[in-house]
Description:
alpha+beta
Amino acid sequence: MNFNKLKFGDTIGIIGGGQLGKMMAQSAQKMGFKVICLDPNPDSPCKPVAHEFITAAYDDEKALHELGEKSDVITYEFENISAEQLNRLTQQFNIPQGYQAIQLLQDRLTEKQTLEQAGSKIVPFLSIKSEKDLNDAIHTLGYPFIVKTRFGGYDGKGQVLVKDETALQEARALITNQECVAEQYLDISLEVSLTVTIGNHKQITYFPLQENEHRNQILFKTIVPARTDKEQEARNEVNKIIDQVHFVGTFTVEFFIDKSNHLYVNEIAPRPHNSGHYSIEACDYSQFDTHILAVTGQKLPEQIEILKPAVMMNLLGRDLDLLEEQFSSHPEWHVHIYGKSERKPDRKMGHMTILTNDLNETEKDMLKQFEGRE
Ligand code: ADP
Ligand code: MG
């Protein structure tokens, strides 16, 4: 496939104005592109950095059309947009990412089926539409298992961990409202992720393997390079997946490693990802830079160089409460604050990246900083 090649001064339309949209816009602007962003929230993080902003719902056909008319290429910062609408837009406007990745990956069930087709190793799962399916899960998967909504979940939202019978009530409540999947709960020794960008003529660039720790199912920290020997295996998994799904731009595959050192694909985010934020300071190109290069039809760097090992810590509302006063005395904390209007304990308000020659020592220091955290 050959994409339209954008020139300096051309305009990139971004659907979604959260922190990912903001950081995409910042990369686009340093390369000389204009940005127009569409988001229902007029206080979106991306608004102050976009040249133009359309306040409209993600499914507002007229507004999406306006975005298309004003843009030389359209991209998106999150997966919960309508695949059908995106498909319609692709008939009229330049959208090299297409709609297939969104369609397959915004639904956990079709995502898992796609991964099975690709031959990826995944955790055993079942589709859950009824009480009977839930009972089947108890027998087929056994306790503990996790019930997840098929659509719209993020940061562990829409998930219930069923350890034993007592948690079944909560799972029942979840499945009465929405179709779900249930998956076996894995005894994880490490979580890792691989961020990849695909450009024109299927050029592919890999970021270094990322080691992730989640707390309450929200990403807490990322360490790069990951302290495991699974990088090549993770790349092999990604290569299988890209044979099944049309990807353009930056996306991330999340993996689990179990106690026997087996690698499982967890899920795929068809967009820049929280675990790739370290790349802004720690690599010669960030995940946002390569995304913009890809969707504007430029050549990608053959390889991403890691300039220094890094620890990235997310800053939720609770973390800002804890650390805010200390930022001024820590210039080594590369702090990014997204500019969200309301601070909530579990809301991602920003992140910070620390470059280091001694990962283990820096990790220890950072964990101490976050010690008082609930
Ligand atoms: P989200 O879309 O919210 O990121 P995930 O499926 O990635 O949803 O779940 C969030 C986190 O919850 C994972 O990163 C992992 O820490 C934990 N988790 C999810 N599924 C499982 C599982 N099957 N076994 C063990 N832990 C899990
Ligand atoms: Mg996840």
